[in-house]
């Protein structure tokens, strides 16, 4: 009869604990003595049991207090960020036994779990331990195999790797959604790589975490400098390196909240998003013009590379924001919590004097407009890719409108704000910018029109009224641009000059809608393209109520059994008030025109 994996793992840990106590387990006992089974002892047992039972529910870090002075017990548990909740809970259960047997009557104890893998840290004390850096006692574990060739080069590469992982861990620039945790590797030769891992308890700040990890790296040189691998473990942090991939590539804990006191954010801490100005200047070569990616109404965007090797995009905001530092941090925090595969990920920010920087993931294919409106590049966009781009934009916009923790109205959806990753997946950028610039507005109206004309819904451009249907209008314009390969301003059709929307509507009415299709598209099913043109026209209808929601749009894009309503005439605002050679001049003959910021993006964040 086979055993369940969890039970088998627990039995293995117990076997190691019983038969190999010296090599398999390690704990440190300190502090005052107490009498077994007195009030303190009972509180300690309760606290250690609470660690195990709560980690079982999927929390990889847990902190608790039990009792009152003078018998209060503080306890915490941390598991490696790459391990599942089951492996974590098994380790903590065995670690509880290690403490109870190894430190039966001492008020302070710490253990790093059984075996060479050392999968968890478990601590208890009669003194507060949360938010307190603790670097002693220390445990070192060695991989006894020597480095036989190129020791100096091996050590240098390993040190560089571990130093870069420290930066990644404290800045959160990793593929794991686990605070203060990073893994990585570097090639030593064509046949051998060096692997590394660093982690701090998530309660300590960037400065303490950095100090603890760099100290552990120095200690590693003393214990394991000539060996292929080893670990240095401290109460607040640990590091490990070896010549084989000892860590799991997946992240099993990304949805697990920290069970921390109420004065700490249980999801993301603002401090964990803040970058040092020195690192950003180093990454961008002091904002070198050669690293400039683009410029908009809100500032200049630069490409950068962090010491760990990760590429980033840094938006250097212009000096328009009226917010204080705390307000700015809070709005960045809101934007950072928005996570979707079709949104550009905000990694963090930097505040230094007058400098306000936003740090985003870097997307190598840049923006959609550089493909779709370039005669050479758009040949790379076959129908399958355009189909994927339209669907991805729709899903990202639906998330902003309905599925995120906030209701987000983008208000500047356009091709230059759609970025493309290596696989040409679209990601919406520049959401979350409105409050960073303290725009004078209410929930549904604004006295300051911001955005890009041509994509603006008429009710917003003329009256300052915005809603989710304003974004739907912009999406419709995007669909027609992607299908047609034409900008939404005026263009020549033979001897005539037409606007994209009027051209699409006229050909739809005349039954010649395929005239809109970009000649660069080949072998595309005509009925499918016709359906996308139909959906685009539904989105740009003048009547706000007639436009579909993004939920309906996503359904229409994915279900061909859904019957589409007949579109009504689009708003020909652009055709009547925009000159053929300009999108942004002489738009509105009133006071609002003077407040317009062209080529900038703005987002309204409304709590649900």
Automatic annotation (TrEMBL):
Keywords: ATP-binding, Glycoprotein, Kinase, Membrane, Nucleotide-binding, Phosphoprotein, Receptor, Repeat, Serine/threonine-protein kinase, Signal, Transferase, Transmembrane, Transmembrane helix. This is Gnk2-homologous domain. The keyword ATP-binding applies. It is found in: Membrane. One of its GO terms (cellular component) is plasma membrane. It comes from Dillenia turbinata. Its main location: membrane. GO terms for molecular function: ATP binding; protein serine/threonine kinase activity.
């Amino acid at each position: 009869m086979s055993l369940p994996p969890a039970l088998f793992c627990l039995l293995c840990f117990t076997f190691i604990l019983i038969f190999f106590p010296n090599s398999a387990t390690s704990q440190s006992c300190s502090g005052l003595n107490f009498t077994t089974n007195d009030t303190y002892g009972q509180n300690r047992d309760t606290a250690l049991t609470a660690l195990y039972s709560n980690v079982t529910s999927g929390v990889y870090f847990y902190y608790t207090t039990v009792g009152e002075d003078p018998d209060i017990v503080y306890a915490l548990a941390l598991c490696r960020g790459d391990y599942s909740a089951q492996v974590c809970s098994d380790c903590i259960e065995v670690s509880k036994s290690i403490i109870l047997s190894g430190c039966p009557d001492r008020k302070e104890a710490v253990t790093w779990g059984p075996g060479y893998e050392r999968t968890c840290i478990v601590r208890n004390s009669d003194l507060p331990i949360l938010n307190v850096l603790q670097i002693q006692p220390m445990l070192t574990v060695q991989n006894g195999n020597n480095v036989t060739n190129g020791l100096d080069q091996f050590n240098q590469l390993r040190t560089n790797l571990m130093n870069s992982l420290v930066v990644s861990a404290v800045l959160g620039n990793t593929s794991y959604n686990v605070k203060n945790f990073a893994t990585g590797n570097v090639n030593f030769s064509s046949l051998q790589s060096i692997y590394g891992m660093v982690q701090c308890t998530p309660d300590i700040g960037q400065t303490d975490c950095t100090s603890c990890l760099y100290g552990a790296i120095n200690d590693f040189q003393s214990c394991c400098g000539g060996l292929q691998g080893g670990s240095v473990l401290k109460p607040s942090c640990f590091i490990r390196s070896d010549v084989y991939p000892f860590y799991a590539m997946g992240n099993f804990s990304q949805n697990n909240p920290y069970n921390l006191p109420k004065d700490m954010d249980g999801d993301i801490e603002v401090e964990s998003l803040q970058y040092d100005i020195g690192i950003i200047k180093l990454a961008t070569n002091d904002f070198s013009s050669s690293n400039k990616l683009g410029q908009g109404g809100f500032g200049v965007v630069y490409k950068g590379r962090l010491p760990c090797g990760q590429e980033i995009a840094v938006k250097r905001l212009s000096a328009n924001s009226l917010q204080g530092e705390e307000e700015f941090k809070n709005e960045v925090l809101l934007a950072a919590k928005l996570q979707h595969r079709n949104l550009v990920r905000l990694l963090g920010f930097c505040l230094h004097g007058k400098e306000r920087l936003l740090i985003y993931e870097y997307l190598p294919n840049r923006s959609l407009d550089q493909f779709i409106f370039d005669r050479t590049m758009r040949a790379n966009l076959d129908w399958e890719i355009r189909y994927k781009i339209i669907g991805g934009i729709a899903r990202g916009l639906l998330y902003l409108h309905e599925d995120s923790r906030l209701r987000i109205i983008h208000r500047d959806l356009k091709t230059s704000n759609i970025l493309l990753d290596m696989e040409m997946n679209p990601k919406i950028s520049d959401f979350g910018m409105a409050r960073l610039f303290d725009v004078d507005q209410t929930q549904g109206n604004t006295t300051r029109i911001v955005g890009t004309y041509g994509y603006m819904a008429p009710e917003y451009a003329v009256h300052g009224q915005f809603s989710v249907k304003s974004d739907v209008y912009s999406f419709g314009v995007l669909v027609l641009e992607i299908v047609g390969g034409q900008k939404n301003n005026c263009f020549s059709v033979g001897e005539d000059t037409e606007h994209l929307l009027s051209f699409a509507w006229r050909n739809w009415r005349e039954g010649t809608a395929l005239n809109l299709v970009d000649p660069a598209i080949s072998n595309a099913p005509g009925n499918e393209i016709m359906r996308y043109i139909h959906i685009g026209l539904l989105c740009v209808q003048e009547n706000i109520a007639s436009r579909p929601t993004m939920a309906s749009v996503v359904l229409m894009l994915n279900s061909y059994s859904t019957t589409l309503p007949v579109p009504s005439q689009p708003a020909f605002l652009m055709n009547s008030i925009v000159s053929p050679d300009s999108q942004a001049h002489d738009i509105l003959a009133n006071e609002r025109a003077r407040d317009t910021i062209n080529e900038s993006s703005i987002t309204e964040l409304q709590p649900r």
